[in-house]
Amino acid sequence: VTFGAFHKVTKLAPELLGCWASILHACPDARLYLKDAELDRPEVRQRITAAFGGHGIDAERLILEGASPRAEYFACFDHVDVSLDPFPYRGGAVTFQSLWMGVPVLTLERPQGMIGRYGAAILAPIGLDDWVATDEDDYVARACRFAADPALLAELRAGLRQRLMQSTAGDGARFVRQLETLLREVWRDGNAAR
């Protein structure tokens, strides 16, 4: 199984790397694929490798890749089984890109306002509530559980893009109509209270 995170390496906080190392320890045959333009720099690659090495993860279990042209970038998702949403700095565009390419995303919901719930807000409309962890231990446990279920991963890969397109997260016009309705209700309720 290959876990992937195509986020900016500046989002990879030490607590996150420790959690991802725990996933790799719990799934000893898994690899982690990181992709960002910054990984073209040898010193950044060395820093990431050393950070994982400090957690007992061999460099051979890491795929560190730099920038690619757009079509090649999207083709890289073919090599990922489960995308890992970073924390405390969430993914946004990469989360949608992963889902669009049929790769489910595991996120960790935290009570930090919108930022802590962003991944969950993307996953809920497409029925991936089970991919929202409640704490780091749950994040690790869910990552391993999903990694051990290739049938589930194949089923999701086959239909995830369609699920995304049919949800409010993937249908901008429907999302705007629903937002307009909610804003009108708030405006009416506010005026009625005066």
Features:
single chain, 194 residues, alpha/beta, 6-stranded parallel β-sheet, 8 helices
Strand line-up in the sheet with most strands: 3-2-1-4-5-6
The radius of gyration is: 18 Å
Strand content: 5-15%
Which structural class fits the helix and strand makeup? alpha/beta
Order of helices and strands: EHEHEHEHEHEHHH
Unreliable stretches (pLDDT < 50, length at least 5) are none
Find the count of extended strands (DSSP E, 2+ residues).
Answer: 6
CA distance, first residue to last residue:
58 Å
Label the overall shape: globular
Question: Can you give the helix content as a percent range?
Answer: 40-55%
Q: Number of helix segments?
A: 8
Could you report the average pLDDT, rounded to the nearest whole number? 92
Question: Largest sheet, if any?
Answer: 6 strands, parallel
